[in-house]
Protein backbone atom coordinates (compact mmCIF):
# COMPACT_ATOMS: atom_id res chain seq x y z
CA UNK A 1 0.00 0.00 0.00
CA UNK A 2 3.04 2.29 -0.07
CA UNK A 3 2.33 3.26 -3.68
CA UNK A 4 -1.33 3.98 -2.99
CA UNK A 5 -0.63 6.04 0.12
CA UNK A 6 -1.71 5.97 3.73
CA UNK A 7 -5.32 7.03 3.07
CA UNK A 8 -6.39 3.99 0.98
CA UNK A 9 -4.53 1.81 3.50
CA UNK A 10 -6.58 3.25 6.37
CA UNK A 11 -9.85 2.65 4.51
CA UNK A 12 -9.17 -0.63 2.72
CA UNK A 13 -7.15 -2.49 5.37
CA UNK A 14 -7.26 -0.82 8.79
CA UNK A 15 -10.94 0.17 8.81
CA UNK A 16 -12.15 -2.93 6.95
CA UNK A 17 -10.07 -5.31 9.06
CA UNK A 18 -11.13 -3.85 12.40
CA UNK A 19 -14.78 -3.73 11.26
CA UNK A 20 -14.79 -7.33 10.07
CA UNK A 21 -16.39 -8.72 13.27
CA UNK A 22 -19.45 -6.52 12.68
CA UNK A 23 -19.47 -7.28 8.95
CA UNK A 24 -19.20 -11.04 9.44
CA UNK A 25 -21.86 -11.01 12.15
CA UNK A 26 -24.30 -9.10 9.91
CA UNK A 27 -23.53 -11.36 6.94
CA UNK A 28 -24.07 -14.53 8.98
CA UNK A 29 -27.33 -13.10 10.31
CA UNK A 30 -28.44 -12.44 6.72
CA UNK A 31 -27.54 -15.96 5.59
CA UNK A 32 -29.44 -17.44 8.55
CA UNK A 33 -32.57 -15.51 7.58
CA UNK A 34 -32.24 -16.04 3.83
CA UNK A 35 -35.56 -16.96 2.24
CA UNK A 36 -37.53 -14.82 4.70
CA UNK A 37 -39.32 -11.75 3.44
CA UNK A 38 -38.21 -9.85 6.57
CA UNK A 39 -34.59 -8.92 7.23
CA UNK A 40 -32.94 -9.87 10.49
CA UNK A 41 -32.49 -7.01 12.92
CA UNK A 42 -29.39 -8.32 14.62
CA UNK A 43 -26.95 -7.16 11.94
CA UNK A 44 -28.20 -3.58 11.36
CA UNK A 45 -28.64 -3.03 15.09
CA UNK A 46 -25.09 -4.16 15.77
CA UNK A 47 -23.67 -1.94 13.05
CA UNK A 48 -25.51 1.21 14.16
CA UNK A 49 -24.53 0.56 17.77
CA UNK A 50 -20.97 -0.13 16.67
CA UNK A 51 -20.88 3.20 14.85
CA UNK A 52 -21.92 4.96 18.05
CA UNK A 53 -19.28 3.06 20.03
CA UNK A 54 -16.63 3.95 17.45
CA UNK A 55 -17.49 7.63 17.47
CA UNK A 56 -17.97 8.28 21.20
CA UNK A 57 -16.07 5.85 23.51
CA UNK A 58 -13.15 5.39 21.11
CA UNK A 59 -12.77 9.14 20.71
CA UNK A 60 -12.97 9.38 24.51
CA UNK A 61 -10.05 6.96 24.84
CA UNK A 62 -7.92 8.50 22.09
CA UNK A 63 -8.23 12.01 23.55
CA UNK A 64 -6.57 11.02 26.85
CA UNK A 65 -4.01 8.55 25.45
CA UNK A 66 -1.25 11.09 24.55
CA UNK A 67 1.08 12.18 27.33
CA UNK A 68 0.26 15.28 29.36
CA UNK A 69 0.74 18.37 27.23
CA UNK A 70 1.37 16.38 24.04
CA UNK A 71 -0.76 17.51 21.09
CA UNK A 72 -1.63 15.34 18.11
CA UNK A 73 -3.58 16.92 15.30
CA UNK A 74 -4.91 15.83 11.92
CA UNK A 75 -2.29 16.71 9.32
CA UNK A 76 -4.52 16.25 6.26
CA UNK A 77 -7.79 18.07 6.98
CA UNK A 78 -8.95 17.57 3.39
CA UNK A 79 -8.88 13.77 3.61
CA UNK A 80 -10.57 13.85 7.02
CA UNK A 81 -13.37 16.07 5.67
CA UNK A 82 -13.89 13.66 2.77
CA UNK A 83 -14.06 10.68 5.12
CA UNK A 84 -16.33 12.60 7.49
CA UNK A 85 -18.67 13.54 4.64
CA UNK A 86 -19.01 9.93 3.48
CA UNK A 87 -19.50 8.80 7.08
CA UNK A 88 -22.39 11.23 7.61
CA UNK A 89 -23.81 10.55 4.16
CA UNK A 90 -23.88 6.82 4.95
CA UNK A 91 -26.44 7.36 7.70
CA UNK A 92 -28.39 9.95 5.72
CA UNK A 93 -28.54 7.45 2.86
CA UNK A 94 -29.71 4.71 5.18
CA UNK A 95 -32.48 6.95 6.52
CA UNK A 96 -33.55 7.87 2.96
CA UNK A 97 -33.97 4.28 1.79
CA UNK A 98 -35.73 3.24 5.02
CA UNK A 99 -38.13 6.15 5.49
CA UNK A 100 -38.29 8.30 2.35
CA UNK A 101 -37.56 6.36 -0.82
CA UNK A 102 -39.21 2.99 -0.11
CA UNK A 103 -40.45 3.05 3.52
CA UNK A 104 -39.78 -0.16 5.47
CA UNK A 105 -38.64 -1.90 2.27
CA UNK A 106 -35.20 -2.57 0.77
CA UNK A 107 -34.96 -3.28 -2.95
CA UNK A 108 -32.14 -5.00 -4.80
CA UNK A 109 -31.01 -1.75 -6.43
CA UNK A 110 -30.92 0.10 -3.11
CA UNK A 111 -28.70 -2.61 -1.63
CA UNK A 112 -26.46 -2.59 -4.70
CA UNK A 113 -26.09 1.21 -4.61
CA UNK A 114 -25.20 0.97 -0.92
CA UNK A 115 -22.31 -1.40 -1.63
CA UNK A 116 -21.03 0.58 -4.63
CA UNK A 117 -20.69 3.72 -2.53
CA UNK A 118 -17.79 2.07 -0.69
CA UNK A 119 -15.87 2.14 -3.97
CA UNK A 120 -16.76 5.81 -4.44
CA UNK A 121 -15.40 6.50 -0.94
CA UNK A 122 -12.07 4.86 -1.84
CA UNK A 123 -11.78 6.79 -5.11
CA UNK A 124 -12.73 10.13 -3.55
CA UNK A 125 -10.33 9.69 -0.62
CA UNK A 126 -7.52 8.68 -2.99
CA UNK A 127 -8.26 11.70 -5.20
CA UNK A 128 -8.11 14.00 -2.17
CA UNK A 129 -4.88 12.40 -0.98
CA UNK A 130 -3.28 12.92 -4.42
CA UNK A 131 -4.88 16.37 -4.82
CA UNK A 132 -6.60 15.60 -8.12
CA UNK A 133 -8.05 18.78 -9.68
CA UNK A 134 -11.84 19.23 -9.55
CA UNK A 135 -12.17 16.17 -7.26
CA UNK A 136 -10.31 17.37 -4.16
CA UNK A 137 -10.57 20.19 -1.66
CA UNK A 138 -7.84 22.86 -2.05
CA UNK A 139 -6.59 22.45 1.52
CA UNK A 140 -2.88 22.23 2.26
CA UNK A 141 -1.60 19.53 4.58
CA UNK A 142 1.20 19.57 7.08
CA UNK A 143 4.05 17.10 7.21
CA UNK A 144 2.94 13.49 7.52
CA UNK A 145 4.97 10.51 8.75
CA UNK A 146 5.31 9.02 5.26
CA UNK A 147 6.51 12.38 3.88
CA UNK A 148 9.46 12.52 6.27
CA UNK A 149 12.73 11.10 4.98
CA UNK A 150 15.81 10.87 7.20
CA UNK A 151 18.90 12.75 6.11
CA UNK A 152 21.44 10.66 4.29
CA UNK A 153 24.67 9.98 6.13
CA UNK A 154 27.93 9.81 4.25
CA UNK A 155 30.79 7.49 4.94
CA UNK A 156 34.31 7.82 3.59
CA UNK A 157 37.54 6.08 4.27
CA UNK A 158 39.21 9.45 4.86
CA UNK A 159 37.75 11.94 7.33
CA UNK A 160 39.07 14.87 5.27
CA UNK A 161 37.44 13.75 2.05
CA UNK A 162 34.53 15.56 0.48
CA UNK A 163 32.36 15.10 -2.58
CA UNK A 164 32.80 16.98 -5.79
CA UNK A 165 30.04 19.55 -6.13
CA UNK A 166 30.14 19.09 -9.91
CA UNK A 167 29.53 15.37 -9.83
CA UNK A 168 27.50 14.20 -12.78
CA UNK A 169 25.35 11.17 -13.32
CA UNK A 170 26.47 8.73 -15.95
CA UNK A 171 23.65 7.31 -18.05
CA UNK A 172 24.20 4.24 -20.16
CA UNK A 173 22.39 3.72 -23.42
CA UNK A 174 20.51 0.56 -24.28
CA UNK A 175 23.26 -0.54 -26.67
CA UNK A 176 25.99 -0.12 -24.07
CA UNK A 177 26.98 -3.09 -21.94
CA UNK A 178 29.42 -2.25 -19.20
CA UNK A 179 30.25 -4.24 -16.15
CA UNK A 180 31.97 -1.40 -14.28
CA UNK A 181 30.54 2.07 -13.65
CA UNK A 182 32.35 5.06 -12.12
CA UNK A 183 30.01 6.03 -9.26
CA UNK A 184 31.89 9.03 -7.85
CA UNK A 185 35.37 10.30 -7.25
CA UNK A 186 36.65 11.47 -3.89
CA UNK A 187 38.58 14.72 -3.73
CA UNK A 188 40.94 15.65 -0.95
CA UNK A 189 40.96 19.18 0.51
CA UNK A 190 44.06 20.14 -1.49
CA UNK A 191 42.30 19.46 -4.77
CA UNK A 192 44.02 16.23 -5.65
CA UNK A 193 41.82 13.55 -7.07
CA UNK A 194 42.17 10.16 -5.49
CA UNK A 195 41.34 6.90 -7.14
CA UNK A 196 37.66 6.59 -8.01
CA UNK A 197 35.50 4.04 -6.26
CA UNK A 198 33.96 1.44 -8.52
CA UNK A 199 30.86 -0.70 -8.21
CA UNK A 200 30.42 -3.74 -10.37
CA UNK A 201 26.95 -4.01 -11.87
CA UNK A 202 25.90 -7.60 -12.60
CA UNK A 203 24.34 -8.48 -15.92
CA UNK A 204 20.79 -9.75 -16.40
CA UNK A 205 21.83 -13.40 -16.23
CA UNK A 206 23.73 -12.78 -13.01
CA UNK A 207 20.76 -10.96 -11.50
CA UNK A 208 18.41 -13.86 -12.25
CA UNK A 209 20.83 -16.39 -10.80
CA UNK A 210 21.52 -14.29 -7.71
CA UNK A 211 17.79 -13.71 -7.18
CA UNK A 212 17.01 -17.42 -7.26
CA UNK A 213 19.85 -18.30 -4.92
CA UNK A 214 19.01 -15.50 -2.48
CA UNK A 215 15.35 -16.50 -2.55
CA UNK A 216 16.18 -20.12 -1.71
CA UNK A 217 18.53 -19.03 1.05
CA UNK A 218 15.91 -16.67 2.45
CA UNK A 219 13.23 -19.38 2.49
CA UNK A 220 15.55 -21.94 4.08
CA UNK A 221 16.67 -19.48 6.74
CA UNK A 222 13.14 -18.27 7.49
CA UNK A 223 11.50 -21.69 7.98
CA UNK A 224 13.15 -22.52 11.34
CA UNK A 225 12.48 -18.98 12.50
CA UNK A 226 8.78 -19.21 11.55
CA UNK A 227 8.42 -22.61 13.23
CA UNK A 228 9.95 -21.21 16.41
CA UNK A 229 7.60 -18.23 16.35
CA UNK A 230 4.56 -20.44 15.79
CA UNK A 231 5.61 -22.67 18.67
CA UNK A 232 6.10 -19.62 20.87
CA UNK A 233 2.53 -18.52 20.12
CA UNK A 234 1.18 -21.66 21.80
CA UNK A 235 3.56 -21.25 24.73
CA UNK A 236 2.42 -17.66 25.24
CA UNK A 237 -1.25 -18.62 24.91
CA UNK A 238 -1.17 -20.91 27.95
CA UNK A 239 1.06 -18.66 30.07
CA UNK A 240 -0.92 -17.16 32.94
CA UNK A 241 1.76 -14.67 33.96
CA UNK A 242 3.89 -12.32 31.92
CA UNK A 243 7.27 -10.90 33.00
CA UNK A 244 5.52 -7.60 33.77
CA UNK A 245 2.90 -9.20 36.03
CA UNK A 246 5.59 -11.06 38.00
CA UNK A 247 7.07 -7.70 38.97
CA UNK A 248 3.83 -6.56 40.62
CA UNK A 249 4.15 -6.09 44.36
CA UNK A 250 0.40 -6.27 44.99
CA UNK A 251 -0.55 -9.94 45.32
CA UNK A 252 -4.24 -9.21 44.73
CA UNK A 253 -3.54 -7.55 41.39
CA UNK A 254 -1.42 -10.52 40.37
CA UNK A 255 -4.18 -12.97 41.31
CA UNK A 256 -6.77 -10.90 39.45
CA UNK A 257 -4.55 -10.84 36.38
CA UNK A 258 -3.99 -14.61 36.58
CA UNK A 259 -7.74 -15.21 36.88
CA UNK A 260 -8.42 -13.00 33.87
CA UNK A 261 -5.73 -14.72 31.81
CA UNK A 262 -7.15 -18.14 32.69
CA UNK A 263 -10.52 -17.07 31.29
CA UNK A 264 -8.85 -16.06 28.03
CA UNK A 265 -6.80 -19.25 27.62
CA UNK A 266 -9.31 -21.09 25.34
CA UNK A 267 -9.53 -18.13 22.96
CA UNK A 268 -5.79 -17.52 23.01
CA UNK A 269 -5.06 -21.17 22.22
CA UNK A 270 -7.60 -21.04 19.39
CA UNK A 271 -6.01 -18.01 17.78
CA UNK A 272 -2.52 -19.44 18.30
CA UNK A 273 -3.30 -21.64 15.28
CA UNK A 274 -3.17 -18.51 13.10
CA UNK A 275 0.19 -18.60 11.27
CA UNK A 276 2.78 -15.93 12.15
CA UNK A 277 2.61 -12.75 10.13
CA UNK A 278 6.12 -13.37 8.79
CA UNK A 279 4.68 -15.77 6.18
CA UNK A 280 3.68 -14.18 2.84
CA UNK A 281 3.99 -10.66 4.26
CA UNK A 282 1.19 -11.30 6.73
CA UNK A 283 -1.55 -12.06 4.20
CA UNK A 284 -2.07 -15.65 5.39
CA UNK A 285 -2.34 -14.48 9.01
CA UNK A 286 -4.78 -11.75 7.93
CA UNK A 287 -7.06 -14.15 6.03
CA UNK A 288 -6.94 -16.83 8.74
CA UNK A 289 -7.82 -14.23 11.37
CA UNK A 290 -10.88 -13.18 9.35
CA UNK A 291 -11.99 -16.81 9.08
CA UNK A 292 -11.61 -17.35 12.82
CA UNK A 293 -13.52 -14.13 13.54
CA UNK A 294 -16.36 -15.28 11.26
CA UNK A 295 -16.66 -18.52 13.23
CA UNK A 296 -16.82 -16.64 16.52
CA UNK A 297 -19.41 -14.27 15.03
CA UNK A 298 -21.64 -17.25 14.21
CA UNK A 299 -21.42 -18.44 17.82
CA UNK A 300 -22.23 -14.93 19.04
CA UNK A 301 -25.40 -14.75 16.93
CA UNK A 302 -26.62 -18.01 18.46
CA UNK A 303 -25.84 -16.83 21.99
CA UNK A 304 -27.66 -13.54 21.37
CA UNK A 305 -30.81 -15.38 20.32
CA UNK A 306 -30.65 -17.55 23.45
CA UNK A 307 -30.09 -14.55 25.77
CA UNK A 308 -32.97 -12.68 24.14
CA UNK A 309 -35.34 -15.63 24.60
CA UNK A 310 -34.32 -16.29 28.21
CA UNK A 311 -34.26 -12.69 29.48
CA UNK A 312 -37.01 -11.24 27.30
CA UNK A 313 -34.80 -8.33 26.27
CA UNK A 314 -35.28 -7.21 22.70
CA UNK A 315 -32.54 -8.67 20.50
CA UNK A 316 -32.12 -5.27 18.86
CA UNK A 317 -31.25 -3.73 22.25
CA UNK A 318 -28.66 -6.44 22.89
CA UNK A 319 -27.28 -5.87 19.40
CA UNK A 320 -26.52 -2.15 19.65
CA UNK A 321 -25.27 -2.28 23.27
CA UNK A 322 -23.32 -5.35 24.39
CA UNK A 323 -22.86 -6.91 20.96
CA UNK A 324 -21.79 -3.65 19.32
CA UNK A 325 -19.33 -2.89 22.11
CA UNK A 326 -17.77 -6.33 21.85
CA UNK A 327 -17.39 -6.33 18.08
CA UNK A 328 -15.94 -2.79 18.16
CA UNK A 329 -13.08 -3.85 20.42
CA UNK A 330 -10.61 -4.21 17.49
CA UNK A 331 -11.49 -0.65 16.42
CA UNK A 332 -10.71 0.56 19.94
CA UNK A 333 -7.36 -1.23 20.05
CA UNK A 334 -6.33 -0.04 16.57
CA UNK A 335 -7.23 3.60 17.25
CA UNK A 336 -5.56 3.54 20.69
CA UNK A 337 -2.32 2.17 19.26
CA UNK A 338 -2.40 4.73 16.44
CA UNK A 339 -3.00 7.56 18.93
CA UNK A 340 -0.04 6.36 21.02
CA UNK A 341 2.53 5.68 18.31
CA UNK A 342 1.71 8.03 15.42
CA UNK A 343 2.98 11.59 15.49
CA UNK A 344 -0.33 12.79 14.04
CA UNK A 345 -3.98 11.96 14.73
CA UNK A 346 -4.76 10.96 11.14
CA UNK A 347 -4.74 7.17 11.52
CA UNK A 348 -6.51 7.16 14.89
CA UNK A 349 -9.39 9.40 13.80
CA UNK A 350 -9.48 8.11 10.21
CA UNK A 351 -9.99 4.57 11.53
CA UNK A 352 -13.09 5.79 13.41
CA UNK A 353 -14.71 7.69 10.54
CA UNK A 354 -13.80 5.05 7.96
CA UNK A 355 -15.09 2.23 10.16
CA UNK A 356 -18.46 3.96 10.38
CA UNK A 357 -18.60 4.21 6.59
CA UNK A 358 -17.54 0.59 6.15
CA UNK A 359 -20.21 -0.52 8.63
CA UNK A 360 -22.96 0.90 6.40
CA UNK A 361 -21.66 0.45 2.86
CA UNK A 362 -20.25 -3.04 3.41
CA UNK A 363 -21.61 -4.28 6.74
CA UNK A 364 -25.26 -3.51 5.94
CA UNK A 365 -25.00 -3.34 2.14
CA UNK A 366 -23.68 -6.86 1.54
CA UNK A 367 -26.16 -8.68 3.85
CA UNK A 368 -29.06 -6.76 2.32
CA UNK A 369 -27.69 -7.47 -1.16
CA UNK A 370 -27.65 -11.20 -0.41
CA UNK A 371 -31.22 -11.25 0.91
CA UNK A 372 -32.68 -8.92 -1.74
CA UNK A 373 -31.03 -10.86 -4.57
CA UNK A 374 -32.48 -14.13 -3.25
CA UNK A 375 -35.96 -12.65 -2.74
CA UNK A 376 -35.89 -10.99 -6.17
CA UNK A 377 -34.96 -14.24 -7.93
CA UNK A 378 -37.18 -16.63 -5.94
CA UNK A 379 -40.17 -14.57 -4.75
CA UNK A 380 -40.02 -11.47 -7.00
CA UNK A 381 -40.47 -9.51 -3.77
CA UNK A 382 -38.33 -6.87 -2.02
CA UNK A 383 -36.86 -7.26 1.45
CA UNK A 384 -38.93 -5.86 4.29
CA UNK A 385 -37.36 -4.37 7.42
CA UNK A 386 -39.31 -5.39 10.51
CA UNK A 387 -37.90 -2.82 12.95
CA UNK A 388 -37.40 0.07 10.53
CA UNK A 389 -38.95 2.63 12.89
CA UNK A 390 -36.55 1.83 15.74
CA UNK A 391 -33.59 1.76 13.35
CA UNK A 392 -34.55 5.13 11.86
CA UNK A 393 -34.92 6.67 15.32
CA UNK A 394 -31.47 5.37 16.30
CA UNK A 395 -30.06 6.94 13.15
CA UNK A 396 -31.59 10.32 14.02
CA UNK A 397 -30.25 10.22 17.58
CA UNK A 398 -26.84 9.15 16.34
CA UNK A 399 -26.76 11.94 13.76
CA UNK A 400 -27.61 14.62 16.35
CA UNK A 401 -25.10 13.37 18.94
CA UNK A 402 -22.37 12.95 16.33
CA UNK A 403 -22.74 16.62 15.37
CA UNK A 404 -22.00 17.47 19.01
CA UNK A 405 -18.94 15.20 18.94
CA UNK A 406 -17.49 16.68 15.76
CA UNK A 407 -18.18 20.22 17.00
CA UNK A 408 -16.03 19.59 20.09
CA UNK A 409 -13.20 18.19 17.95
CA UNK A 410 -13.30 21.31 15.78
CA UNK A 411 -13.37 23.50 18.90
CA UNK A 412 -10.30 21.71 20.30
CA UNK A 413 -8.51 22.27 16.99
CA UNK A 414 -9.28 26.01 17.07
CA UNK A 415 -8.45 26.55 20.76
CA UNK A 416 -5.78 23.97 21.64
CA UNK A 417 -4.38 23.43 18.15
CA UNK A 418 -5.03 19.67 18.04
CA UNK A 419 -7.84 17.13 18.30
CA UNK A 420 -6.06 14.71 20.65
CA UNK A 421 -4.03 15.29 23.79
CA UNK A 422 -3.36 18.65 25.38
CA UNK A 423 -3.73 19.54 29.07
CA UNK A 424 -4.92 16.51 31.03
CA UNK A 425 -7.82 18.39 32.61
CA UNK A 426 -9.36 19.38 29.29
CA UNK A 427 -8.58 15.97 27.81
CA UNK A 428 -10.54 14.25 30.58
CA UNK A 429 -13.39 16.78 30.30
CA UNK A 430 -13.64 16.01 26.59
CA UNK A 431 -13.51 12.27 27.28
CA UNK A 432 -16.36 12.45 29.80
CA UNK A 433 -18.41 14.54 27.36
CA UNK A 434 -18.00 11.91 24.62
CA UNK A 435 -19.06 9.14 27.02
CA UNK A 436 -22.18 11.12 27.99
CA UNK A 437 -23.12 11.38 24.31
CA UNK A 438 -22.83 7.60 23.99
CA UNK A 439 -25.01 7.04 27.08
CA UNK A 440 -27.65 9.40 25.64
CA UNK A 441 -27.68 7.42 22.38
CA UNK A 442 -27.98 4.04 24.13
CA UNK A 443 -30.72 5.14 26.55
CA UNK A 444 -32.91 6.88 23.95
CA UNK A 445 -32.56 4.06 21.41
CA UNK A 446 -33.35 1.40 24.03
CA UNK A 447 -36.45 3.28 25.22
CA UNK A 448 -37.70 3.65 21.64
CA UNK A 449 -37.22 0.00 20.73
CA UNK A 450 -38.84 -1.10 24.00
CA UNK A 451 -41.90 1.04 23.22
CA UNK A 452 -41.52 3.32 26.24
CA UNK A 453 -41.17 6.48 24.13
Automatic annotation (TrEMBL):
Coiled coil: none
A GO cellular-component term linked to this record: membrane
Residues spanning the membrane: 42-65, 77-96, 108-127, 255-274, 280-299, 306-326, 391-413, 425-447
Keywords (A to Z) from UniProt: Ion transport, Membrane, Transmembrane, Transmembrane helix, Transport
InterPro entries assigned to the protein according to its UniProt record, in alphabetical order: CaCA, NaCa_Exmemb, NCX_ion-bd_dom_sf
Domain Sodium/calcium exchanger membrane region: start-end pairs: 11-126, 282-445
Domain of life according to the entry: Eukaryota
Record-level GO BP terms: metal ion transport; transmembrane transport
Membrane topology (UniProt): Multi-pass membrane protein
UniProt-annotated location(s): Endomembrane system
Protein name according to UniProt: Sodium/calcium exchanger membrane region domain-containing protein
Species annotation: Citrus sinensis
Lineage of origin: Eukaryota, Viridiplantae, Streptophyta, Embryophyta, Tracheophyta
Amino acid sequence: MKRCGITPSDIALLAFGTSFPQISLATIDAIRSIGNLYAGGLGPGTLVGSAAFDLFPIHAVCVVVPKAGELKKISDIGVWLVELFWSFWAYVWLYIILEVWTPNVITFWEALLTVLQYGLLLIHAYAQDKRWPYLSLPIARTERPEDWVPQETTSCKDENCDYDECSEILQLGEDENRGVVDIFSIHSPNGAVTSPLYQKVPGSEDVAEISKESFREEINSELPHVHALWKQQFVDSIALESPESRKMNNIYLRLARIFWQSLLVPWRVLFAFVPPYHIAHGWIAFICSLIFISGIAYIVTKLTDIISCVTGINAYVIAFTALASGTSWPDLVASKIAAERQITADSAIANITCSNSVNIYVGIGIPWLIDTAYNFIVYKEPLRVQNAEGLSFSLLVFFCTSVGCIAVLVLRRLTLGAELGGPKLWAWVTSVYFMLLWIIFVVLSSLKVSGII
